[in-house]
Design goal:
- The chain is of the alpha/beta class.
- The chain folds into two domains: about 120 residues, Rossmann fold (3-Layer(aba) Sandwich), CATH 3.40.50; about 70 residues, P-loop containing nucleotide triphosphate hydrolases (Rossmann fold, 3-Layer(aba) Sandwich), CATH 3.40.50.
- It is about 55% helix and about 15% strand.
- It has a five-stranded parallel β-sheet with strand order 2-3-1-4-5, with helices on both faces.
- Helix 3 runs antiparallel to helix 5, helix 4 packs across helix 5 and helix 6 crosses helix 7.
- It is globular, with a radius of gyration of 18 Å.
Amino acid sequence: MRLIVGLTGGIGSGKSAASQWFEQQGICVVDADIVAREVVEAGSPVLAQLVAAFGDWVLLDNGELNRRALREHVFQDNAARQTLNSITHPAIRQSIIQQLEQATSPYVILVSPLLFESQQNQLTSRTLLIDASVELQIARASQRDGQSLEQIQSIIAAQMSREQKQNLADDIVLNDGELAHLYTKLRPLHLHYLALSEQ
C-alpha cells in the first residue's frame, strides 16, 4: 500500500511553501486545485455538463470556463453550489486517484485546501496540517494576493475552523516564522514518511 500524505492548511498558512519543499526532496505532489482546473478545461466533458446545467453564460468567448461568474453565482445560491459540486467533485476525485496511482516517489503528497471538507482525506494514509494563527493567515494572504480583508475573512469563515482541522490531522506543523524555520520542521516528517513508506 503506497503511503499517501494529505497536506492541508487554511489560506496563508504556508501549505504551498510546504508542498514545494516536499517536491524539492523528490516527492511527487498531486495538487487538488490544479486538478480542479484541469477537469474543466475547454472541450472537457465536465465543462459540457456545466454548460448543460447552468447555460452558456458560464463560458468565456474563447470557450473556457468563466470562473468568476460561476463562483459569484454559486456563492449566492446553495442549490447551484450543490449542482456544481455534484458535477465537478467526482471528476476531480477520479483524476486525483489516477495521478496518485501514477506517482513514482516513495510516498506521495496530496495537497488540498479542502482536504477534510471534501472528504479527500479518505484517499490518504496520513494527514499533515500546516497551521498558522488567523492573524498570520490574514497578514500573509493580504500581502500575497492583494485581496481585501473582507475577502480573506470570508474565505477563512467558509473553511473548516483551525480547531476542527487540528483535531482531524495526524501531524501538525505550526508555521509561525520564516520559511527556513518551516523547513526545519518538515525535514523530520519527511524522514518519518520515508520510514513509513518502507513498512
